[in-house]
Design a protein that fits this description.
Helix content is about 35%, strand content about 20%. By secondary structure, the chain is α/β, with parallel strands linked by helices.
């Protein structure tokens, strides 16, 4: 899953006419799936009357006593992600002295006791119980109405409003009873109308919103969990087995987004290729789901967040040929060496990756092809790494999301040897990043002077230097070129999330080399 850019200052949603004194702050780490789950949870607070801030807490911010609750949605894909979560927890405790700090997500699922030990105001809400966040606004209102204190958050208050004790009766694996039930239930039976009907607080699809506070492009979660057991990955431990939103519910939600004015929706999940939703009395896969959405909606465009190479077949390619499916695909590849892929317990070979890229290019003209690569997996030799570089060249990937291998406790790779030195891992990651920059510059330049469909994004950063009398608009093209548009300050632009045509002028080479997201200059055509 591709990592998303974080704002550099808070984004505020204020529907708090009745209770302007109640404010909540959300911080999110990790993947797009986490981002949209936070959006949905924040919407519950906003609809209940809270003033909501999304992302961007800084050490330079002044102390804010008005925030009564903070929610941190965490990631556990690497040890650095967990370290960052702990830093943010401590920062939230300092900046919001009257707030309860609720930590959820994958890190809270895997290491709840470690999180709780940080401070008495910190609660670890396991990621599989994240849906319980929807209950919090009403409980805070009730608690506040029953208290004469300015901020009713004495010790143990947050445990009381969350009913957290039900999450504290853990077994030796740190699970509570409902989690064990979900883990041991066959994935085919786990639907929103099956096991989650009995335990709605654990329904992973409860967070759906037609409005997005910190994103201009709509996203829809259609799948969660993963049935793979990749040797390096802790996410399948944190999120459990694969479960899918029923097909009719997917179509209903896409239609709702289209009616709300969204021109594009990103279908996302932990592993969308394992989508197996119910349609009528049968299960359908991702290819059939795409065809169903296209047949039951009018014009909304569809983008897939990430896919595995093995799902790219003739049926999938037939579905994506539609002009409404964006020509942008992010493949989870990880290595170009078959021996390393086998050690990773991946379900494909390098030849499968080559075949997938060939089929995607046959189905879509000059698509943006991106991939994930792990640098320095245990036992990765120079020859293995050379095979990865060779695969990237042969597939001509536009972008490579490269990161050094991070050892995760509880996974088989944790004890695998030989270990690769940190300096070697970092060196290989830099080589991959340099390759990615060259490829992205080449791809962007190949579209110079051409016009593409694009979705307007908001400009959230205050650090952009803009000439006097000018302003910058941002748009993401159908083939995923992030384009900045310099225009007159009085230019009346369409609203965020609208589809426009953007003429690309040139690549922003220095920013691409620096690893920044915005990579082209253009104009609205």
């Amino acid at each position: 899953m591709r990592r998303t850019e974080k704002s550099v200052f808070p984004i505020i949603s204020d529907k708090s006419e009745n209770s302007p004194h109640l404010s909540a702050h959300f911080e999110t780490l990790g993947c797009r799936l986490n981002q949209i789950e936070s959006e949905g949870a924040a919407d519950f607070f906003s609809q209940a009357g809270f003033r909501v801030e999304m992302n961007g807490v800084s050490a330079n911010d002044a102390t804010d006593g008005k925030i009564c609750v903070c929610v941190l949605n965490t990631c556990a894909v690497t040890t650095k992600a967990e370290q960052k979560a702990r830093r943010i927890i401590r920062l939230l405790l300092k900046k919001f002295p009257n707030a309860a700090i609720i930590v959820t997500g994958c890190y809270a699922q895997l290491s709840p006791k470690e999180i709780r030990s940080i401070d008495e105001r910190v609660v670890a809400l396991p990621g599989l119980a994240k849906s319980s966040l929807r209950e919090i606004p009403e409980k805070i209102f009730a608690a506040r109405n029953n208290s004469s204190a300015q901020n009713p958050f004495p010790k143990n208050f947050i445990e009381e409003i969350l009913g957290e004790k039900k999450f504290l009766s853990e077994n030796s694996n740190g699970e509570f009873p409902q989690q064990k039930e979900i883990r041991e239930t066959d994935s085919a039976k786990k639907t929103p109308h099956g096991i989650y009907a009995k335990n709605p607080a654990l329904d992973p699809f409860i967070f759906f919103s037609k409005e997005f506070v910190s994103h201009s492009r709509a996203s829809l979660k259609i799948q969660d969990g993963c049935d793979n057991s990749c040797s390096y990955c802790a996410i399948h431990l944190a999120r459990g087995k694969s479960v899918s939103l029923e097909a009719e519910a997917v179509v209903e939600r896409v239609n709702a987004l289209e009616e709300a004015g969204h021109a594009e929706v990103v279908l996302t999940g932990v592993n969308v290729g394992q989508y197996a939703g119910t349609f009528g009395e049968r299960k359908i896969g991702i290819a059939e789901l795409l065809s169903l959405i296209l047949s039951r909606t009018k014009k909304i465009a569809i983008r897939l967040s990430s896919i595995h190479p093995e799902i790219v077949d003739e049926k999938f390619c037939a579905a994506i040929k539609s002009e409404r499916v964006r020509p942008h695909f992010h493949l989870s590849v990880q290595s170009g060496s078959d021996s390393i892929l086998k050690k990773m317990n991946r379900r494909y070979t390098r030849n499968d990756v080559l075949r997938a890229c060939e089929m995607l290019r046959a189905a879509k003209e000059n698509p943006f092809l991106a991939c994930d690569i792990i640098a320095g997996f245990p036992g990765e030799s120079e020859e293995d790494f050379s095979m990865t570089l060779d695969l990237l060249e042969r597939c001509s990937f536009t972008n490579v999301h490269a990161f050094p291998f991070s050892s995760r406790k509880g996974t088989p790779a944790f004890s695998m040897k030989p270990k690769i030195p940190e300096r070697t891992k970092d060196s290989r990651a830099r080589i991959l990043a340099d390759f990615s920059a060259r490829q992205k510059i080449r791809y962007v330049e190949s579209f110079a002077q051409s016009s593409r469909r694009a979705i307007l994004e908001s400009v959230r950063s205050k650090k952009i230097a803009v000439p006097s009398g000018k302003k910058i608009l941002r748009a993401v093209t159908d083939n995923f070129i992030h384009t900045e548009i310099l225009c007159d300050e009085n230019f009346s632009a369409p609203k965020e999330g609208s589809e426009v045509f953007v003429k690309i002028f040139a690549a922003q080479k220095e920013r691409i080399i620096a690893g920044e997201e915005w990579e082209a200059w253009g104009e609205i055509s």
